[in-house]
Fold each of these.
Amino acid sequence: MQIENELATEVIGAALVIHKTFGPGLLESAYKECLFYELFKRGLFVEKEKPLPLVYEEVKMDCGYRLDIVVENKLILEIKAVESLTDIHLAQVLSYLKVSGCKLGLLMNFNVVMLKDGIRRVIRN
């Protein structure tokens, strides 16, 4: 989990740079693109819109789930630009963690005055 925590620290630093530049008010897709670019620029292996297969009773279902950003195949980033985060957003990240096998996710809402108020660490037990 140490690697995931280090990645999360790097991601939050990158997100702060983006939020400081633009503030709240952009579309989710804009923040996602900027964060992807910033992480790539920092030398991290990042994937955006990564397909997430769902396996049920050993059958791979084509459900069309896509992870916003995955960092180093270890950290899932779910990007939002909403008025406030809800329990369903948290449940979404928890489900992604369970299905993907990753241990840590960051739920990040850029539509806040202070970015620290829009970030939730989500850990799969």
Amino acid sequence: MVIALKALIERAQTWPEEAQEELAQVAREIEAGIAGGTYRASPAELAGIDRGLRDAEAGKFASEDEVEAVFSKHRR
């Protein structure tokens, strides 16, 4: 095992349960990609997709100015 991974796993044992589950989910996604498996979205991800589709159907889109504001905020 890579030393950095082993150290991370040891530290992760002290994380809150929600953070540990998020790490486990990411690991499952990586594992599925390696194995060529099918990704299964979580209930929260499916709810987010449904919310986005409803918003798109309702014509709720960000303006160019709103999009630029977000990108500007996160550019370095």
